[in-house]
Design a protein that fits this description.
2 domains, binds glycine, globular, Creatine Amidinohydrolase, alpha+beta, binds manganese (II) ion, Creatine Amidinohydrolase, Chain A, domain 1
Length: 465
């Protein structure tokens, strides 16, 4: 939690940018997992956290721009709540900590909004991503459920994206706290993982350490010997020598800022020669992309630069052929990397994706590519100091995709399909770091995590064989 002033200033700035009307920001509710009282872990809405900072279910924030006042709506704990959940800090006191003196019960929300509308104020709200919040908007603003997404406020979305995209020093400090725990986790996993264990044993240990550190995972753990499946959440395989392990996981601590790191390492003490060659290409692409980060260059250009390094490398090992420039322009290299180079990260692992990917990652000057793979680039914008992005190139051998493209005769001038026969069981490699754009360049956030072949093999050399 930041100082009172931080929240007051954030709300003032938002009000100035939106200009007029009533801003309505919905916190999240508890959600039943298999019945109402057996709940999922509570995660507050990130925009609510950014402007109102209170990590508690059942709250609604309003900023009356003309009235120059912020208000919080929520109910104080009842004696029943105290019996079941222990004594509670009053909502009034929590509100005071974030500079809000106007606190009212939930029963007053609908009438407050109706009063604002009858005064001619526009009620600005965001696209809801949880059913309960959709129903609240329907009830309070009398908008048919199907119409809600068309009635969300574009000026509000754009103002929030502008503000949340640029991270302050205090936000960076929180991100680095999370990253430092994540760095230790990745290093430990690379140090102790042995052949014969199940993926889920490692997953359990990671989750346990995150909880021990007072946090939780920022997104579901990817820990797999089938790294070619991009978001692989199956954890039942037994690790065997010769395989690669791809671990993509990051924690969020009390402040809820996310970290998102990937490392890939051999189950054995060493990479095979084939693995080494592909790993080095991914690492070269990642280092070149990080090196290119600076204000004013677009992330779309850096994505293409990474694709070029990958195409060069794959040509050198005989998997691609012909002109690298043409292969990249045509989208052929997306067979090996069918995702974007990275995304914005902050309070959300894919920051503000609930507000709309294109509002966050694109603008009038940079349009999303329509090519397969490239179109998955979530963030293509011109970079500015204060942006934080992930840099996560990969090379994957997806047998089904290779077979489909080969059968369709796609990009035969650029792809050496015969040579790919030797890679069908390779899996996938991804290397991911979180990078701050600075006034003059970039800074990789958090403690360094081993990623060169030498550094990883040095960690692996002590595992028992
Ligand atoms: N961890 C999910 C991603 O990298 O997008
Ligand atoms: Mn990522
Ligand atoms: Mn990731």
């Amino acid at each position: 939690m930041f100082s009172t002033n931080t929240y007051v200033e954030r709300r003032q700035k938002l009000a100035e940018q939106v200009g007029s009307g009533m801003i309505l920001l919905l916190g999240n509710e508890e959600e039943g997992m298999n019945y109402a009282d057996n709940i999922y872990h509570f995660r507050q809405d990130s925009t609510f956290l950014y402007y109102f900072g209170i990590n508690q279910a059942g709250l609604v924030g309003m900023i009356d721009i003309e009235g120059e006042q912020s208000a919080l709506f929520g109910d104080e704990a009842t004696m029943d709540d105290v019996v079941w959940m222990g004594s509670q800090i009053s909502l009034k006191n929590k509100a005071k900590n974030v500079g809000v003196t106007c606190v009212a019960p939930r029963s007053q929300i609908a009438s407050t909004l109706q009063k604002a509308q009858s005064k001619g104020q526009t009620v600005h709200f965001l696209p809801p991503y949880r059913a309960k919040n959709t129903l609240k908007l329907h009830e309070w603003l009398q908008i048919p459920v199907k119409e809600i997404k068309n009635e969300t406020s574009v000026p509000l979305i754009k103002a929030i994206v502008n503000q949340r995209s640029i991270k302050s020093d205090e936000e960076i400090a929180e991100m680095e706290k999370a990253l430092n725990v994540t760095a230790d986790l990745h290093t430990t996993v690379m140090e102790v993982t042995q052949a014969g264990v199940l993926e889920r044993e490692i997953v359990g240990a990671i989750q346990g350490i995150a909880v021990r550190e007072g946090g939780q995972m920022a997104y579901p753990i990817i820990l797999t010997v089938n790294g070619q499946t991009l978001h692989n959440h199956y954890h039942g395989n037994k690790l065997q020598k010769g395989q690669l392990v791809l671990g993509d996981f990051g924690v969020e601590l009390e402040s809820s800022y996310a970290s998102d790191i990937t490392r890939t390492f051999p189950v054995d003490t060493h990479f095979t020669e084939q693995q080494k060659a592909i790993y080095q290409i991914v690492l070269d692409a990642q280092m070149a992309a990080i090196e290119a980060i600076r204000p004013r260059i677009s992330y779309q250009e850096i994505h293409l630069l990474a694709m070029e390094v990958i195409a060069e490398g794959l040509k050198a090992v005989g998997l691609m052929k012909g002109s690298v420039e043409e292969a990249v322009a045509a989208g052929a290299v997306a067979l090996f990397m069918p995702h974007g180079l990275g995304h914005a990260i902050g309070l959300d692992v894919h920051d503000m994706e609930d507000l709309g990917e294109d509002f966050v990652g694109y603008d009038d000057t940079i349009q999303r590519s329509k090519l397969f793979g490239y179109s998955s680039l979530r963030f293509g914008r011109k970079l500015q100091a204060g942006h934080v992005v992930t840099v996560e190139p990969g090379i994957y051998f997806i047998p089904e995709l290779i077979d489909k493209w080969q059968k369709e005769g796609r990009y035969t001038e650029f792809i050496n399909y015969e040579a790919l026969e030797n890679y069908r069981n390779f899996g996938g490699i991804r290397i991911e770091d979180n990078v701050l754009v600075t006034a003059t360049g970039r800074r990789v956030l958090g403690k360094p995590i081993p990623k060169t072949i030498e550094e990883i093999e040095a960690l692996r050399k002590t595992v028992t064989s």
